[in-house]
Structure to design on (373 residues):
């Protein structure tokens, strides 16, 4: 029997956006339930926000080679209704970034069985923390989803037992490949072990330096190192700000959100929580409880100018002489967007890092072959 928590309890206690009391209660109920004797031969991994970033869920339980359980913990009826919409968007648009293999398998399923397979392999649940809230959901006629309460955990109800029953049909279980993809996406910190840190060209170093009250925009061709430069600068910004403030990184390309998470955690070696960094696409961005001290945008060519305006207005601290802010944008030189609040020309990144990296790789192989001869 195994129940693992990501991040661990110590990291959860240091979340800058701490869990609410009822969410901590839920996590305790869930952990205790999964440690019951009847689950002694099973393994569960619990992923807790903000490890999940701006995804559809507050908590995910992964049972390797079996199923994903998604738990949402809405605070009111409005959040409950919004979470329904977010889940639908996730299933239609974002599943492929969690597991490309799983997404392809879902798409290849006979049309009339697609929804059935999704519901079996990805189970969606709502934890409703108080009786009045539950009554309100029933009064509004919104009880179509699976709703659970603290009483379900305390009494081990048939609802929970049915949800966590083992699916015998292997055709509607997660495969090993799908499980590994999902684990790497949910916990980018597992990808660090075999990662080799990448160096920037020397003349990029000045661009990678984090500066207070700075506004910069960079352009370059594909392979010129825009994302790597942004990664280095984001990490330097986190080191400059320490633990005082948070940083928002937006990927204009929705399919690269998880790649950015992997790259930043691998380059630095610390988790996104420790660095104080949130990474999201514009489409999945959660409402800001507090404005960010720094805003970094990668692949800005995919964003409308009005969207960037919205980010500046609602997510970044006001760019005044009194505030410590940083605002950096990267874009493909073939599709340059109009970037609000950064005047003047783009700075150009001219190196072809793909060619440089290939030359280094070839040189290393030649050197090793000489040593071995």
């Amino acid at each position: 029997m195994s129940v693992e928590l990501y991040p661990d309890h110590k990291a959860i206690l240091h979340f800058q956006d701490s869990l609410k009391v009822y969410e901590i209660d839920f996590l305790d109920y869930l952990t205790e339930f999964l440690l019951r004797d009847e689950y002694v031969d099973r393994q569960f991994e619990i992923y807790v926000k903000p490890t999940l970033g701006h995804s559809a869920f507050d908590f995910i339980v992964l049972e390797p080679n079996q199923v994903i359980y998604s738990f949402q913990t809405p605070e009111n009826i409005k959040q409950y209704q919004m979470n329904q919409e977010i889940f639908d968007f996730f299933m239609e648009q974002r599943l492929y970034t969690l597991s490309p293999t799983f997404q392809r398998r879902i798409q290849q399923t006979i049309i009339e069985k697609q929804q059935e397979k999704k519901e079996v392999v990805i189970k969606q649940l709502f934890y409703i923390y108080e009786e009045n809230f539950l009554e309100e959901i029933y009064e509004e006629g919104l009880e179509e989803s699976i709703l659970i309460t603290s009483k379900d955990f305390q009494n081990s109800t048939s609802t929970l037992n049915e949800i966590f029953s083992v699916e015998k049909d292997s055709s509607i279980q997660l495969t090993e490949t799908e499980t590994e993809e999902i684990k790497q996406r949910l916990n980018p910190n597992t990808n660090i072990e075999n990662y080799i840190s990448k160096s920037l060209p020397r003349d990029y170093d000045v661009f990678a330096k984090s500066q207070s009250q700075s506004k910069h925009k960079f352009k370059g061709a594909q392979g010129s190192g825009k994302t790597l430069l942004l990664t280095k600068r984001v990490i330097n910004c986190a080191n400059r700000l320490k633990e005082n403030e948070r940083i928002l990184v937006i990927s204009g390309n929705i399919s690269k959100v998880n790649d950015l998470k992997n790259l930043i955690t691998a380059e630095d070696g610390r988790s996104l929580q420790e660095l104080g960094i949130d990474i999201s696409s514009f489409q999945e961005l959660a409402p800001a409880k507090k404005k960010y001290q720094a805003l970094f945008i990668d692949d800005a060519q995919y964003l409308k100018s009005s969207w960037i305006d919205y980010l500046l207005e609602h997510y970044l601290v006001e760019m005044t002489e009194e505030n410590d802010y940083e605002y950096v944008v990267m874009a493909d030189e073939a599709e340059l967007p109009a970037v609000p609040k950064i005047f003047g020309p783009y700075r150009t990144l001219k190196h072809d890092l793909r060619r440089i990296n290939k030359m280094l790789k070839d040189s290393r192989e030649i050197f090793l072959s000489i040593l071995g001869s």
Notes: The CA atoms of residues 91 and 159 lie 23 Å apart. The chain has two domains: 2-186, 202-357.
